Amino acid sequence: MENVFPGNAFRVGGDEFVIIETGIVKAQFFQKLDELRREMEKRKVSFSIGVLWRENENDIVTMLKEADNIMYTEKKKYHLENKEL
């Protein structure tokens, strides 16, 4: 993460991180996010991401909760779609 988002990746729990990126446009952010996904897949690291893009938002607590909810929704969706019969 530090290679793709230098200085902007922070550990918030055992295996949970938050990336706070400022000063770039949405397209740049999502390009960097794709780069992070490729790096993690290349290293065969399993991960879940809750992605949230907001411009001019100051309520970091609400943003973190929303991103967390997105991550859990995506994780649940993945497990339902990849459920072995």
Automatic annotation (TrEMBL):
Checking InterPro entries in the record gives: GGDEF_dom, Nucleotide_cyclase, Rev_trsase/Diguanyl_cyclase
Q: Which ranges carry the GGDEF domain?
A: 1-85
Q: Which Pfam families match?
A: GGDEF
**Superkingdom of the source species:** Bacteria
Output the PROSITE patterns linked to this UniProt entry.
GGDEF
Full protein name: GGDEF domain-containing protein
Specify the species: [Ruminococcus] lactaris CC59_002D
